[in-house]
Amino acid sequence: MRFALPIVASCASAVMVSTLGLTVPAAAAGSATVTPTIDEHALTEVSEDGLDAPGARESSLVTTQVSNSSTTNLPNLLRSPSAVNALGMAPLGTFGSGSTAISPVSLQESQPRTPSGSAPAETSPEPAETPDMSGGVREKTEDGVNIAAISDVLEVPESRSSVVGVTYDTETEVTVEVRIRTGEGWSAWDELEEDVVGEGTPGTEPFVVSGASEVQMRVLGDAAPEDARLLVIDPKHSAADQQAVEQNAPVAAPAPGAEAPGEAAAEGAAAGAEGYAAQPAAAVPATAAPGSATAQTVAVKKVSKPKIGSRKSWGANERLRKGKASYAPKVRAAVVHHTAGSNSYSAGDVPGILRGIYSFHTKGRGWSDVGYNVLVDKYGRLWEGRAGGVDRAVIGAHVAGYNTGTFGISVMGSYGRSAPPQAAIDAVNHAIAWKLSASGVSVKDRATVGGRSIPAVVGHRDLGSTSCPGAAFYSKFGSMRKDIEKLQQGGAPAAPEKETPKPAPKKTAIDTHYEGKEKVLGKPTSKEWDLAGGKVKNFERGYITWSKATGPQVISGAIATAWNGATRTKLGLPVTGEQGGLKSGGAYQKFQGGSMHWSSKSGAQPTWGILQGYWASKGYENGHIGYPKSAPQCTDGRCEQLYEGARLVWAEGYGVTEFSPRGDISAGARDLNASRPGSADDESAEPGSGPAGPGEGSADQETEQSPAPTQTPAPAPSEEPRQETPRAEEPKQDESEKDESKKDESEKDESKKDESEKDESKKDEPEKDESKKGEPKEEKPKKSAEQIEKEKRDAVIATAKKHLGVKYRWGGTSPRSGWDCSGYVQYVYAQNGIKLPRSSGAQKAAGEVIPASQAKPGDLIWIPGHLGIVSETEGQMYDAGSTRTNTSKRSYDWMLKRGAVFVRVI
Questions:
Q1: By the 8 A CB rule, do 826 and 813 touch?
Q2: Nearest 5°: CA angle at 181, between 176 and 187?
Q3: Torsion angle in degrees (nearest 10) through CA of 66, 69, 71, 74
Q4: Is the pTM above the cut of 0.70?
């Protein structure tokens, strides 16, 4: 991965060559197609919820590159243009010493030129500017790179592939990263390359998501592009998809050990290998062809056309296409690409992925059509891309500056770490051999394209600052050129074997379990797909799942509706069927990671982890807590779930607390039910000593399977909780009175020496005692409200000072293991009797926003994603910033520049 600049050409970069506003009439469209849905989300600022998602601030290869670089080799993302010029640095993203050690092919310029076509203007060196490394640490990655924008966590269909990407209105120097969440958790952040600005709006290449339930994107840089939009495209599933795959056979590999035959042998082969025989072709003169591409060629034999699935077969909606195709006189060279995203797609997903890429290019980016001429799936099938006829020299939009006279072919998937399967490479070889031979071009030729002399077969990285088609794929180019040469010399590929009819597939466990349940579940709507070590099949009104551990299980009704997205990922597969007979006619179903409960009032809601364990200890739905009314909401070391009779909150380091189900959580009270010693709700236990461990972990880390719901209620809550409170406070009052009584007795003993004084003492003593009891204010004057407030503020500052130097740990809340900004603030105030919620946003909401002129030591200063404690020194604060600053005292001027507000909670 690398930082991309606007001049960098990515795998989907293009210069549009057709700008006519012509829409294909309805009659020209192919067979009935499904219509992909496109959801648009703004990506211009930092989402608080998105930043709170686990791993949202994790480092990546890009951010590691930044943090490990010195001032003189910082990426251009963090430099001013003058600093880049002064250092004479090439745009980042250039394939160089940091990449796989593969020598790119020789590119000889026919005349001096720059990517823009003119020599760069000379500029006088200027001193390099030091990047501004200040800012909200919550808006930086763990290694200090600024997060300009981050999206919410967005759901994507798990049972089929989808396509995501970003578009924006103006060029900018930023890096866009994406990650996906599967059943195994979140992936690492991966860079999504930017496209060169051509026709339409600028943006990223499309990213294919397969086998995931959620996706998230972030923008690294000083500021997000204006009007940046994140598009999530669901290409849907069509009944014709499987038929398209079955009718488009993979291209067969070349015959093993095939030698280049003579013309007679080649002609003879035509009779036995129809459609694949090599035919002699006349030599093409080495003269300049009209247009921007010329070639010097030798005599080659024409290679037969491989099978290529049509646009109609994969469901291209021709109404999306704009204008007419443009053509070059000849194809002079082939450029090999790969697309971005998942390699785990199925064969049945391919038509949908093609529809998704097509929709992103046309509807999202405003292009006239798909950029590539032909796309190849990992199974070795070829698919028509840009319209205009695969037999003609259609000008594509696949590499800026080199589209005219080139054939753009892209393998679906990412191939930086591993090369495509051999079936896909064979298909690429055959397609290129055929396409070049149609123009009389040998793979050994060189062509002049876009003003440069290039080999007849190159990778995208040879023509632009990009890693495409991936280092592992690029390493295969030597052997690929040899195979293409063999095909062009007459070593025709073997004819595809005729597929013999396969016997009907055996019924799976899911198929068998479905028998007799047709009325309940309806018809099947998908093939079986993988989840949590088992299989799932969709039906019109539910699901059937299977694994070795759980066997076949049915999910239907309201529980099936609620079992989706992140909830599905968390719960996994069901381990029982739905069971009724609960309170108020309710029902439940147990899953690998928790349970789903339903009642007519609460609907179907999931429970899991520590909160479920606490609920179980109070009698499940039979206790005073009742049924759950929401799913657990877990962010930033805190989980919360609403029930009919309570709101349960788990906070890292504090265990589970029960609050009133209505109003602010600060208005509730600690649960007074009997608790299990050492459990998360045991007030005698050390903070964090519950199931989550000492001050670390989260609610979803519990490994013990919660027991099934019981219809036996737990012991009822104590009806006299107030009796316990006075006992805790009475001892101090009793001791005081006992001391006073002893003092009185002593005075009585002294008075016995004088009977008259004794009598007088007996009369006066009660008045004296009553006077003492009635005059505590004179002995201990009452403090003013101002004094109490000042003492509390001084105590907060003292506590904040005491913990300077504690290490920064995102999600932490303890001085022992480290904390983040909100964990630090929460801890400091809790030590002084003030309870605050866990996240910075909630802490701001718990107080009162005040003018800056009224701010005092002990107040809070807040911006979205970060906050600190106003110190006793003007203009400074105490905060837990980052792994660079840890817990420290520093200026908050940078926060004021970002519109900080002051908040009073004391």
A1: yes
A2: 60
A3: -40
A4: no
